[in-house]
Write a structure and sequence with these properties.
The structure holds two protein chains of two kinds. By secondary structure, chain A is α+β, with helices and mostly antiparallel strands. Chain A contains 20 helices and 32 strands. Chain A folds into five domains: 68 residues, Phenylalanyl-tRNA Synthetase, Chain B, domain 1, CATH 3.30.56.10; 197 residues, Phenylalanyl-trna Synthetase, Chain B, domain 3 (Phenylalanyl-tRNA Synthetase, Chain B, domain 3, 3-Layer(bba) Sandwich); 68 residues, Phenylalanyl-tRNA Synthetase, Chain B, domain 1 (2-Layer Sandwich), CATH 3.30.56; 212 residues, BirA Bifunctional Protein, domain 2 (2-Layer Sandwich); 88 residues, Ferrodoxin-fold anticodon-binding domain (Alpha-Beta Plaits, 2-Layer Sandwich). Chain A starts with a strand and ends with a strand. By secondary structure, chain B is α+β, with helices and mostly antiparallel strands. Chain B is rod-shaped, with a radius of gyration of 44 Å. The chains are: A alpha+beta, B alpha+beta.
């Protein structure tokens, strides 16, 4: 909020420079964000927290400044107090039909005013605070609100049917054209200020256009009231209409300041618009009861929460400086906050007042006593290993938004641990936002891949063709049971494309292929402490047929890896193969890893045999490996892939797979003859079980 | 009677002639083929003049034919010439070989100023870099790291945090809602509740994680960002402990001369509440750096970092903790803002574009 330094000095007796004023206010919690000059004045931009509606005025800021500096407020010589009409008579002119929503309502008639421009001092003051001058009466209501924090509204009395006011909920079907010349539909939840026929203002929010002050206005009805905070807030939200008045009413104004504000405005109107004060009505249906805060020992409570020792006497002095009154009961002191403070309800609130007025700088800095060893999240421990492995392979870490465009619906196959297989269409099973701030991005992602691919495209557009990116983050899907919180699953995904970039060199290394992606996936799993994963061919909508693998561990699908499907690549205008992988980290974290067990080092040499097999295109290396194991020869220590060859000497649908077998005994050096017998047994098992032939 | 050394001298003369034909003087200028040729010739002379079948070896066999008193002198004369020839040849060969070696070394000289060959290293995201540093500091101070749901119920996002229905913070248009009424958490304070429900008290945790607010992306706003929430609840915890803890970790992160400042503020879930600032890590609080207005702190000397306070008794009650027995502090701050200042990033949107030219700058 903008606050004029000169105006403040009219209200509180301070001898501080604008900068010193800013410091003093910031120290007690009114953060001054900036100071700028305006025609011999200084305007302070003050950040007022939502609980301090009492500070939404110069009076409020002045009170704080007084409490912070110990300086007194300057009392104003007020106008002669007006004697209100007896309420019986008043009720004929103003009736409150909803006393729960309108706690106080005053009306003052000012006759024979001349509407015209405001004097320059008033125009300047409003302008310095960023307000526009309208006419003398409108400016005065605005001015008094900025001075005292009390919103008010001036009606053209002669335009009120029956010259009467009824404060009641609007009726269904009623509407009003407000001062901003917008027609607004009202309903029973909205409190209206009405004449005998219709609403003439939306209570606490905005006046009506037709009953507003115009150049022809002669007689003014000045409304100064107190409306229920929740009611104003709800109406303001419903109408999507927030005004300076509603902002203050919904946070709370000073119910005991209503008459003073009315007098102040009336006096100014008479001074500047030449009116004469007439009748004044004050409808105050329920007596104001200040809240009571009990505290057995405010000094002890202060020390318990803040660690600062403040004597009971000083506590009371500090509280009194902001208008909190203390009375005694049998076993505890009772503190009553002033009517302008809506934020003091419990002992902790009193403590905050004491500690802030005493100065937060007087709180000591002490470390809490030792407690126990700290610990990282298990997922973070694993992720750190995974990140470090991926960094080593050249991957940079991406962070993409958790919400993705709905155009990706059904274009990717999320992992079954995120989105289990179901007959329902995918969009119905995804978590969807009511709206988004990024157009189209209303789906909570079930996979990290769309975001990573957008990052790839961004980099392509910057002419970077060799990209390795990974991301870890959550994927989301609706729960099976309606009403249950959505499923969240921590995933790790990566994309790679192009050739291996070399640090500090413009030349590139090898072009990446699918086996690079599979290798990285294996490295990630290993870093996560998972071994024995199985890669098997799979058909997934986002991966190219024949270039996709699902990754399983103990029969559970934990990931997929492959080359991006042509359709998706084409849409993104990717003209080079892009490899993608997604792994269910949550699935890995939940596994307990046994510590590694030492195996004695080999003492005898091993013998290796390389064999080439002729296999059909769709036959798999894994079957050869499995068939070799089926032979049950313990001496056959390892079966390793050597080469996969397609070309001369082979039929169109054939490949040659070269495999290396290692034979070793733990207790003797094997002879050639021994090895040969075992080797033939292994080969026989392969030929029989994997249905392949040996290449001659 | 003197011995006849004529045949010995003849060998020597012939050698001198042969070695003279090798252009040994120009070895230093010889090319690799020339030097190789010279070496072959020198080796050939070595065989011819010092081998078992050399003329000197033949003459040696004639020692016995000399008069007994001359044999020693004759033999010595042969040996003298043999030593001389061997010496010359060894020197020559050595010289040529050294030339050949140096030509080869020269030819195989490597330019060690060319960058080494290595795959480009990847880089962690600046948010992760900061987050890891902060987590490590707190783990060393005895805190456990926590995280929890990103899609929450209103209860965890608001009610349990003392933000009842109708509260301005709750009705602000900041929160994303799903079509079935769940909220994307708008602050990591939700983890306070989840963690106290799970672990009970006493508790010391920090919870880094993603939060969501309906801000249209611009230079200083993004709809998804990261916060770190801290919570310490125990018997006898005061604001002094809050100040001590925040000051300690900021010193560990930004250096020992870092000063923190606490200002009164308001948050629904703490009472009393405070915002904390720390002295600018560039100008150390002076507001100017290199004679110009300091950038990260905009000349104020202070950097506003986060919110904090003593956990509101209603929050403790919401998780079944008696506020008359236990007290605690909580604090929270945004990682993007911190990263933007630490790394001098002028546009926060860069953090979610994942441009490799951006990511490569951090380590």
């Amino acid at each position: 909020m903008n606050i004029s330094y000169n105006w403040l000095k009219e209200i509180v007796d301070i001898e501080l420079s604008p900068e010193e004023t800013a410091k003093a206010l910031t120290r007690v919690g009114l953060a001054v964000e900036g100071i700028h000059g305006h025609k011999g004045d200084h305007v302070l931009d003050i950040d007022i927290t939502s609980n301090r509606s009492d500070c939404l005025s110069h009076l409020g800021i002045a009170r704080e400044l007084g409490a912070a500096t110990g300086r007194p407020l300057i009392s104003r010589t007020g106008s002669a107090a007006t004697v209100p009409l007896p309420s019986v008579l008043a009720g004929d002119t103003v009736r409150i039909e909803a006393p729960d929503l309108c706690h106080r309502f005053t009306a003052r008639l000012i006759r024979n005013v001349s509407i015209g421009p405001s004097p320059s001092w008033l125009v300047d003051r409003l302008e310095s605070l960023g307000e526009r001058s309208i006419n003398n009466v409108a400016d005065i209501t605005n001015y008094v609100m900025l001075e005292l924090g009390q919103p008010m509204h001036a009606f053209d009395l002669d335009k009120l049917q029956g010259q009467r006011i009824v404060v009641r909920p609007a009726r269904p079907g009623e509407s009003i054209k407000t001062l901003d010349e917008v027609d607004r539909e009202l309903d029973e939840s909205i409190l209206a200020v009405c004449d005998t026929e219709k609403p003439v203002a939306i209570a606490g929010i905005m006046g009506g256009f037709d009953s507003g002050i115009t150049a022809e206005t002669r007689n003014v009805l000045l409304e100064v009231a107190y409306f229920d905070r929740d009611s104003i807030r709800a109406a303001s939200r419903k109408l999507k209409l927030s005004t300076e008045a509603s902002y203050r009413f919904e946070r709370g104004v000073d119910i005991l300041n209503v008459v003073t504000a009315s007098e102040r405005a009336a006096q100014l109107i008479c001074d500047l618009a030449g009116g004469e004060e007439a009748e004044f009505l004050d409808m105050f249906p329920r007596a104001y009861m200040p809240p009571e805060v009990r505290s057995a020992n405010i000094s002890a409570a202060t020390q318990r929460l803040s660690g600062v020792q403040v004597s009971s006497e000083r506590c009371d002095v500090l509280l009194a400086s902001i208008g909190v009154e203390r009375t005694e009961s049998n076993d505890a002191a009772i503190y009553s906050p002033p009517s302008w403070r809506h934020d003091i309800a419990i002992e902790e609130d009193l403590v905050e007042e004491i500690v802030r007025l005493n100065g937060y700088e007087n709180i000591e800095s002490v470390l809490p006593p030792a407690f126990g060893a700290g610990e990282h999240l298990r997922s973070e421990t694993i992720l750190r290993r995974v990140r470090s492995v991926l960094e080593g392979f050249g991957f940079s870490e991406a962070i993409t938004y958790s919400f993705i465009d709905e155009k990706y619906d059904s274009r990717f196959q999320p992992l079954p641990s995120v989105l289990p297989i179901s007959d329902l269409p995918e969009p119905e099973r995804l978590v969807t936002l009511r709206d988004s701030v990024i157009e189209g991005a209303v789906r909570m992602r079930p996979t990290l891949l769309p975001g990573l691919l957008e990052a790839v495209r961004h980099n392509f557009n910057q002419s970077e063709r060799n990209i390795l990116l990974f991301e870890s983050g959550k994927a989301f899907a609706k729960a099976d049971t309606p009403g249950e919180a959505p499923a969240e699953r921590l995933l790790l995904s990566f994309v790679m494309t192009g050739s291996m970039p070399l640090e500090g060199r413009a030349s590139l290394g090898r072009a990446y292929d699918l086996y690079d992606a599979i290798g990285i996936a294996e490295a990630v799993l290993e870093a996560a402490g998972v071994t024995g994963c199985i890669f098997r061919p799979v058909e997934l909508v986002h991966l190219r047929s024949g270039r996709a693998a699902k990754i399983a561990k103990d029969g559970v699908e934990i990931g997929s890896v492959g080359q991006l499907a042509d359709a998706l690549a084409d849409e993104s205008k990717f003209r080079q193969p892009v490899f993608v992988c997604e792994i269910d980290l949550d699935g890995l974290i939940s596994r307990e890893n046994s510590p590694p067990a030492y195996r004695p080092l080999p003492r005898f040499p091993s013998v290796v045999r390389d064999v080439s097999f002729v296999v059909k295109r769709q036959q798999r290396y894994a079957d050869i490996e499995a068939a070799a194991k089926m032979a049950g020869q313990a001496i056959c220590r390892s079966v390793k892939f050597v080469d996969d060859f397609v070309g001369s000497g082979l039929a169109e649908d054939e490949r040659s797979l070269t495999v290396r077998f290692e034979y070793r005994s733990d207790d003797r050096t094997l002879t050639e003859d021994e090895v040969e017998v075992i080797h033939q047994a292994v080969l026989a098992s392969i030929i029989q079980n994997a249905q392949v032939t040996m290449r001659m | 009677m003197a011995i006849d050394t004529t045949p010995i001298q003849a060998v020597k003369d012939k050698f001198d002639q042969d070695i003279g034909r090798l252009d040994v003087a120009s070895v230093e200028a010889a090319s690799l083929p020339e030097a190789t040729e010279l070496l072959a010739q020198a080796n050939e002379l070595k065989i011819r003049y010092t081998g078992k079948r050399s003329e000197l070896a033949g003459l040696m066999k004639m020692v016995g034919a000399q008069a007994p008193e001359d044999r020693a002198a004759f033999g010595q004369a042969i040996q003298a010439v043999d030593r001389e020839i061997s010496g010359v040849l060894t020197d020559t060969i050595e010289q040529i070989e050294s030339r050949i070696t140096s030509i080869k070394i020269e030819a195989e000289r490597v330019d060690v100023t060319i960058p080494g060959r290595r795959p480009r290293t990847g880089h962690l995201h600046p948010i992760t870099i900061l987050r890891q540093r902060i987590e490590d500091i707190f783990v060393s101070m005895g805190y456990a790291i926590e995280d929890d749901r990103e899609i929450e119920t209103d209860y965890y996002n608001f009610d349990a945090l003392n933000i009842p229905e109708g509260h301005p913070a709750r009705e602000s248009q900041d929160t994303f809602y799903t079509t079935d009424g769940f909220a994307l958490r708008s602050q990591t304070s939700t983890v306070q509740i989840r963690a106290m429900e799970r672990r009970g008290v006493p508790i010391r945790i920090i919870a880094p994680g993603k939060v969501y607010r309906r801000d249209t992306p611009d230079m200083t706003h993004v709809p998804m960002f990261h916060q770190v929430e801290g919570l310490c609840v125990d018997r006898g915890i005061t604001m002094a402990h809050l100040k001590g803890t925040v000051t300690e970790w900021l010193k560990r992160l930004f250096g020992d001369d870092t000063v923190t400042r606490f200002r009164p503020s308001y948050f629904p879930f703490t009472e009393p509440s405070a915002e904390f600032d720390f002295s600018c890590f560039v100008c150390h609080g002076s507001g100017t750096s290199n004679g110009e207005r300091c950038r990260p702190c905009k000349g104020s000397g202070w950097i506003e970092l986060g919110g904090s306070g003593m956990v509101h008794p209603n929050v403790l009650r919401a998780v079944g903790v008696d506020p008359s027995v236990y007290s605690g502090f909580a604090f929270g701050f945004g990682l993007e803002r911190m990263a933007a200042m630490t790394f001098n990033i002028d546009d926060i949107r860069h953090m979610f574009e994942n441009d490799v030219r951006f990511l490569e700058q951090f380590r």
